[in-house]
């Protein structure tokens, strides 16, 4: 709640209000004796009704801006997922001239992007009676679509006269607000939450059980746990990280739900965690009673200091400072393996400039700005107005928690009160970066499958500890709290089906090949297979399984370095991705013409599940193939090390001992670490290997020779 009204009421001058109303619209501002030089406007922002939906889920995250004379004087809090928000916030604004109306603008909050405009209205201050409270109902309008109904905003206002000696308060208030918003992109700490279990939750289904899951929200950040079927005492063992923006902490809202296929999920209960009451650098075990429901949730909450995340100008370069560079190199040296395993490396991104961007405005120009993302870390540049060749000259630094992360740089056009226009995007795997090289990247479309207009010049440096990076590969990936909602797409369903079919056909063809050996379709081949079968079975030992996989990896490696690369560019997947983008564009244009399948929620949910399962199965097969194809050399070398270790272990240690150690570890794991998060190291490893779709998305497009940095320098010299 904003409250800047701590001014003493020192003015008791007589004030005359002209109640006469004529055709000329006489107002109190026109009365000579009625202007003491400054007014105080007390506003209570009550609520909104029937606001416009701007999110895919049919809701919005509305907040309100108050402006006078083009300056923002108040911004409300954000009410998430609500078209009838209740704010009940008070603001005290000092007004110099009543001729300036109070503009009210409502926006839908979109983290990191331009917020969506939901409507505006204005309050004519000359029509207010002094010292008399008034309830005001304002109808929201969009100047571009005046016939559209966008809902209403309800206010309570009181206008009182003040002396002119406090005129500087207005400017101070605006500066303070802008300073807060400028700093809001940087966080001061990390909140790590481990969702352990639920106890005695409320039964929501007819069988006396529930299918519970939990939602977490801290400001704009939100996570959703996995669904635990048919239980009132679920064991989740999931971990989430939130960014902490406020020094005081903030409050995490937690809600428990019961999953119901085909209809709205049932509400089980809610609770909150007040972070300001928790000490830093310490793990707290919390057992929270669910309000408006039954049962408890058990959590582990840890608050830690901020990661290495910053924004600076190009003149401030930490890697060019020899002392700072040596300190960074020392922090990630091979000798400091066990010092904070989560701190894998350091990333510095110089966003220098862009050239030849797409025209987004009717003036033939654009107002571009950049969004730089690494997992859940998202930072923004300033906007360069009216320019297709902007220069940002900004440096962003990030803390690397997973070396297999993808750096995403997206260029948008700022569009005033409306949603930002997409201009282009690049996705760069950290392991593909060449340090210290200023490089021009061709901007891609939203699907990352083809070029769009323009290039962006980046200079990137990555410093990391290889051992920490390898160990991090064997634990689950960090979940993103900003993810697109699952959507049903005919093209996406077809693409995933074809991808899975190709993986299955590899197995089918292998089975046909083996069967042909038994049928003696080719006598020499069958004879060789028979001799190999006798030799392998007679001499088989368990260590030969990882040894064969090791030989396969080595064979492919020598094929690649000898120039006989058997990896082929997957043009089929690329073509399907481009077709999918065309379908998306068509869906955006015809969003109001929904098909029959979109009207039946249950069928749609089943289709989305099938679509996702096909994607997971196809991706699993493609990831195995790409591991042996050396698509990511770091991961293939890691696989070679692991296979060598397994081969040696299986060769020297009897199998019964290995199984015995595995079983003892499994049975005693919960006794030794009651709150340990279960994971499968092999699946975690494969999750870092890109699928064929991701290979297409991450591959770098060829640069037009006219955009070469070297050629540009020569042209400048000439």
Automatic annotation (TrEMBL):
* SUPFAM superfamilies recorded: C2 domain (Calcium/lipid-binding domain, CaLB) (SSF49562)
Tell me yes or no: is Endoplasmic reticulum among this UniProt entry's keywords. Answer: yes
Q: Which InterPro entries match?
A: C2_dom, C2_domain_sf, MCTP_C
Q: Where in the cell is it found?
A: Cytoplasmic vesicle, Secretory vesicle, Synaptic vesicle membrane; Endoplasmic reticulum membrane; Recycling endosome
Per the record's keyword annotation, is Repressor included, yes or no? no
- Keyword line: Calcium, Cytoplasmic vesicle, Endoplasmic reticulum, Endosome, Membrane, Metal-binding, Repeat, Synapse, Transmembrane, Transmembrane helix
Residue ranges spanning the membrane: these are 527-560, 634-662
| GO annotation, cellular component aspect | endoplasmic reticulum membrane; recycling endosome; synaptic vesicle membrane
Listed GO MF terms: calcium ion binding
Looking up Pfam families in the UniProt record yields:
C2, PRT_C
GO BP annotations listed? regulation of neurotransmitter secretion
How does the entry describe its membrane topology? Multi-pass membrane protein
Which ranges carry the C2 domain? 20-138, 171-288, 322-443
What family is this protein classified in? Belongs to the MCTP family.
- Name of the protein in question: Multiple C2 and transmembrane domain-containing protein 1
Organism ancestry? Eukaryota, Metazoa, Chordata, Craniata, Vertebrata
């Amino acid at each position: 709640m904003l409250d800047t009204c701590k001014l003493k009421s020192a003015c008791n001058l007589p004030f005359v209000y002209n109640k006469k109303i004529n055709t000329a619209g006489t107002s109190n501002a026109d009365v000579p004796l009625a202007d003491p030089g400054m007014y105080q406007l007390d506003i209570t922002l009550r609520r909104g009704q029937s606001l416009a939906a701007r999110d895919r889920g049919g809701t919005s995250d509305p907040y309100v801006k108050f402006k006078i004379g083009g300056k923002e004087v108040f911004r409300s809090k954000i009410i998430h997922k609500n078209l009838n928000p209740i704010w009940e916030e008070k603001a005290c604004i000092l007004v110099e001239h009543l001729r300036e109306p109070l503009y009210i603008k409502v926006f839908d909050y979109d983290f990191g992007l331009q917020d969506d405009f939901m409507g505006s209205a204005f309050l004519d201050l000359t029509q207010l009676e002094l010292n008399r409270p008034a309830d005001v109902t304002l109808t929201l309008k969009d100047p571009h679509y005046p016939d559209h109904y966008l809902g209403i905003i309800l206010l309570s206002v009181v206008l009182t006269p003040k002396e002119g000696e406090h005129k500087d308060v207005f400017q101070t208030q605006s500066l303070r607000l802008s300073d807060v918003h400028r700093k809001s992109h940087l966080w001061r700490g990390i909140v790590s939450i481990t969702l352990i279990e639920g106890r005695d939750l409320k039964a929501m289904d007819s069988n006396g059980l529930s299918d519970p899951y939990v939602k977490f929200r801290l400001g704009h950040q939100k996570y959703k746990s996995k669904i635990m079927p048919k239980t009132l005492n679920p064991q989740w063992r999931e971990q989430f990280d939130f960014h902490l923006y406020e020094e005081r902490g903030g409050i995490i809202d937690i809600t428990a739900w019961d999953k119901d296929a085909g209809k709205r999920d049932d509400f089980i209960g809610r609770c909150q965690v007040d972070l300001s009451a928790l000490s830093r650098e310490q793990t707290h075990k919390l057992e929270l009673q669910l309000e408006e429901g039954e049962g408890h949730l058990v959590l582990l909450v840890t608050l830690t200091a901020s990661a290495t995340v910053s924004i600076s100008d190009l003149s401030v370069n930490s890697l060019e400072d020899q002392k700072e560079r040596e300190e960074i190199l020392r922090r990630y040296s091979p000798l400091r393996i066990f010092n904070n395993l989560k701190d894998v490396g350091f990333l510095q991104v110089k966003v220098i400039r862009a050239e030849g961007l797409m025209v987004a405005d009717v003036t033939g120009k654009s107002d571009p700005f950049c969004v730089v993302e690494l997992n859940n870390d998202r930072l923004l540049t300033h906007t360069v107005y009216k320019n297709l060749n902007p220069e940002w000259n900004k440096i962003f630094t990030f803390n690397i928690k997973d070396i297999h992360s993808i750096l995403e740089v997206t260029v948008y056009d700022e569009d005033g009160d409306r949603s930002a226009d997409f201009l282009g995007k690049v996705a760069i795997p950290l392991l593909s970066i060449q340090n210290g090289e200023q490089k021009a990247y061709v901007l891609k479309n939203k699907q990352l499958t083809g070029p769009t207009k323009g290039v962006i010049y980046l200079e990137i440096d990555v410093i990391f500890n290889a051992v920490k990076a390898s160990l991090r590969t064997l634990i689950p990936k960090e979940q993103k709290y900003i993810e697109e909602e699952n959507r049903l797409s005919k093209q996406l369903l077809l693409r995933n089906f074809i991808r899975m079919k190709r993986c299955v056909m590899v197995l089918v063809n292998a089975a046909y090949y083996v069967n042909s050996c038994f049928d003696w379709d080719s006598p020499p081949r069958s004879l060789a297979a028979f001799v190999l079968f006798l030799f392998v079975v007679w001499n088989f030992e368990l260590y030969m399984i990882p040894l064969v996989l090791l030989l396969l990896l080595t064979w492919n490696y020598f094929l690649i370095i000898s120039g006989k690369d058997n990896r082929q560019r997957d043009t089929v997947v690329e073509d399907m991705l481009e077709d999918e983008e065309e379908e998306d564009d068509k869906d955006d244009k015809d969003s109001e013409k929904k098909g029959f399948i979109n009207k039946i929620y249950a069928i749609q949910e089943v289709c989305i599940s099938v679509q996702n399962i096909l994607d997971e199965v196809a991706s699993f097969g493609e990831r195995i193939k790409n591991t042996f194809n050396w698509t990511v050399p770091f991961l293939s070398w890691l696989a070679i090390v692991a296979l060598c270790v397994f081969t040696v272990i299986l060769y020297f240690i009897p199998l019964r001992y290995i199984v015995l150690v595995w079983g003892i570890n499994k049975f005693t794991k919960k006794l030794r670490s009651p709150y340990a998060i279960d994971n499968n190291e092999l699946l975690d490893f494969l999750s870092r290997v890109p699928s064929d779709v991701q290979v297409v998305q991450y591959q770098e497009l060829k640069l037009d020779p006219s955009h070469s940095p070297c050629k540009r320098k020569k042209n400048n010299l000439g």
